[in-house]
Design goal:
Layout: H1 2-12, E1 20-24, H2 29-40, E2 44-51, H3 57-72, E3 77-81, H4 84-90, H5 95-113, E4 118-120, H6 125-138, E5 151-152, E6 155-156, H7 164-173, H8 190-205, H9 209-238, E7 239-241, E8 245-249, H10 250-253, H11 259-267, H12 275-281, E9 289-291, E10 295-300, E11 303-308, E12 318-320, E13 333-338, E14 348-352, E15 360-364, E16 370-371, E17 380-381, H13 382-388, H14 393-398, E18 400-404, E19 407-411, E20 415-416, E21 429-434
Parallel strand pairs: 1-2, 1-4, 2-3, 4-6
Antiparallel strand pairs: 5-6, 7-8, 8-11, 9-10, 10-11, 12-15, 13-21, 14-21, 15-18, 16-17, 18-19, 19-20
Helix pairs in contact: 2-7, 4-5, 6-8
């Protein structure tokens, strides 16, 4: 196996040569074999061990085992203990997801703090089979059937080409010691049920099952590559990227019979799960929205608009104490003394200084707001102004107002309020500019 592993590394992970590697070592057979292989090939390795404190004395014994081994082998090691159960409850995660989040976050911190190049984990071919079956059973898109990636950023999984049997044989041949995790024997977890009951049957039905599985993964990965290529081409024709949002134009999208597949490809990374609701959004009335934890998708006439959800505690009011203030958040506003009134435009207005009452505010609109649009007679509700200007819901949410006391001075970047605009008789003129 050592020769096969060396060839595998040289052919598929040549970038690891002369790099500093951090190996995730639990003390189990897979990670102990991984460490042995890299040591035999004289790679610069360090190891990291997580104690999730889920199995009492057994977890502590695993930690001690790895400590003793690392000291004996003179390998630099890092250890940490997590209160996984409390973290799981506080963040409303399963124990497995909580442990995964905790360890990968810590691994990335170690890489950064110690100037290490790659994290290496001991996932192997049988793990890939189990992950495939879990995703297949629960329902997934094509990406859920393409297996665990051999490389994901700075995370490397070089044992994915090797079966559990190969790893076990190598450990026995080289008298490698390891710790058995008692939880692996329990059928409490779905993965273990597959490992103990389903996968052995598949191997019995087809003695070349693992080879067949690898071939299938290869074909699925090729198919996924084709899907991604097609998705990018259609994306360029249909989607418009703006500063804070994506706009999916429906007319060109619906020219494709399989438009739902494209929506799935473009939106899957934004945390959406109610796919039928998203597909129905195409024919829904304007104003209907679908939410994920981080984003929302809005139907607005002939397009779908994707934008980030705002935090409920996000500050929405900003104060300008005087004309000397340099305002950079949330907008870049500049105030200048002016002698004459030049031609105004959407990003520049001239106001009467005597009408301004400091502190000024920058805020979002509220129901009932109104102003006196410059160039028009009388007042107008902002909601009516937004409608006339064909604002989408997102446009309304993103619109900032410059206010003096409870009055609107400027619908920023759009229209000034006539009550504040400079006239021919104005003595002290202020030029307000919205800069890019």
């Amino acid at each position: 196996m050592l020769t096969k592993f060396q060839n595998h590394i040289e052919q598929n992970f040549a970038q690891l040569k002369d790099k500093k590697l951090l190996l995730a070592v639990s003390g189990g057979i897979d990670s102990m074999v991984l460490m042995h292989l890299f040591q035999q090939l004289n790679y610069d390795i360090k190891i990291a061990h997580c104690n999730f404190q889920l199995r009492g004395k057994e977890s502590d014994a695993d930690e001690l085992f790895v400590k003793v081994k690392s000291e004996k082998l003179k390998v630099k090691s890092y250890f940490i203990r997590f209160d996984t159960e409390n973290y799981s409850k506080e963040n409303k995660l399963s124990i497995q997801l909580a442990a995964r989040k905790l360890r990968y976050q810590w691994f990335q911190e170690l890489l950064l703090e110690n100037q290490l190049d790659y994290l290496v984990t001991a996932h192997h071919l049988d793990d890939n089979v189990e992950t495939f079956l879990i995703n297949f059973t629960r329902g997934t898109g094509l990406e859920g059937l393409t297996g665990i990636p051999a490389q994901n950023g700075n995370i490397i999984r070089p044992l994915l080409a090797f079966s559990r049997l190969e790893i076990e044989n190598y450990a026995l041949e080289n008298e490698i010691q390891w710790r058995e995790d008692s939880s692996n024997a329990s059928d409490k977890y779905f993965r273990n049920k597959l490992r103990h009951d389903i996968v052995p049957i598949l191997k019995e039905l087809n003695t070349g099952f693992l080879d067949s599985f690898q071939n299938t993964l290869h074909h699925l990965q090729q198919a996924e590559s084709l899907v991604n290529d097609a998705s990018k081409l259609v994306y360029e024709k249909v989607v418009e990227e703006k500063e804070s949002q994506l706009e999916i134009h429906l007319k060109p999208l619906l020219e494709f019979q399989n438009y739902k597949a494209y929506l799935y490809q473009w939106l899957k990374s934004y945390g959406f799960s109610a796919w039928n609701d998203i597909y129905d959004l195409v024919d829904a009335q304007s104003g209907k929205q679908i939410f994920s934890e981080t984003h929302f998708l809005l139907k607005d006439r002939e397009k779908l608009i994707l934008s980030v959800r705002k935090s409920s505690n996000e500050e929405e009011i900003y104060v300008i104490k005087s004309l000397d203030d340099k305002v950079n958040i949330p907008l870049k506003l500049r105030f200048y003394k002016a002698v004459n009134i030049f031609e105004t435009h959407s990003n520049c207005i001239f106001v009467d200084e005597s009408k301004l009452k400091f502190p000024l505010t920058i805020r979002k609109w509220q129901e009932g707001d109104y102003f006196y649009p410059s160039g028009m007679s009388g007042k107008k509700k902002l909601s009516k102004y937004f409608k006339d200007e064909k604002y989408s819901l997102l446009d309304k949410e993103n619109q900032w107002l410059l206010g003096s006391e409870d009055q609107i001075v400027w619908v920023v970047g759009k229209r000034a309020d006539d009550r504040f605009t400079s006239k021919e008789t104005t003595q002290n003129i202020i030029k307000i500019v919205l800069e890019e």
